[in-house]
What does this fold into?
Amino acid sequence: MQNKALIVIGMHRSGTSALSGLLDELGIFMGKTLFAAQKGVNEKGFFENAELVALNDLMLDELASSWDNPIADICDYSIGKESFFIEKAHSLLKNDYDNQAFWGMKDPRTTLLLPFWKKVLEENERVLPHYILMLRSPFEVFGSLKKRDDFSLEKSLMLWMNYTLSGYYHSMHAPRLIVHYNQLLSSPETVAKNIAALIDKPFDIAASQLSFVDKKMRNQRTEPTLETPLAVMAQSVYEQLSKEKVDEAELNKIRNDYLSYQSSLSNVLKEHLLAVKKEEVFYRKLFVDAYNSFWWKCSWPIKKIEELIRGKK
It folds into this structure.
């Protein structure tokens, strides 16, 4: 019998943590090593598997990319050392989820790496993957990113498009549910029933009490600002995915328009950003290697003694 997996995908700040908290409340196992709550960011918890985040970051480094790369390739890419990463991914799934009949996995970065994770999940005969795509207004996501990271509107909208289009198109032939942020906050019981139908598991919703999600989670009510072609495209994607039945032809047209927009950015700018990212990855690896080296560990007590002596002077 296959274990049923719920893979939460969608843009950062779109409600993936709130959705994952609901899954946890319903008895879905979300992983062994979860990040703790963070005041002012996610005060109720992220429900992100730390091992998953670390692996996703390694793969993004290998692609000379990052979670906040506005020119990320969302269509076709190949990861160097793929066999190494596939082995790591299978090991993670086995160690964390192998004995769980119903389990969930959440890290927004997974959305950008969905072709890789789909391959891994489909190779695992013990797992039947289901996908839940979180959908929130791109302008509300911008408001949240502006507050937390001081991102511009253009960068935020490009990130939203990258995650949303990648999540939608790479999960469209698998069992899937699109959850609207507004519905999650206003009626978590309805969302829970839709999830139950997706995985064919009758949750005892009354007994669960569903206290995790509440309307106070909404901190942004940013209205659409349709002053640029990018803003119009983002709002159009949002409206299409909010419909009961998506107009696939229209969505494909918007997607192609966005890919043209993305590729129209200066090649010199792209080249510079790629070089900066590669340099960042290189120096971070140097630091990690040095930090984990034998001599660093040997010298650490001496450095602490030196700091104590200097502090007494």
Notes: The chain has two domains: 3-222, 267-313. The mean pLDDT is 88. The longest helix spans residues 267-291.
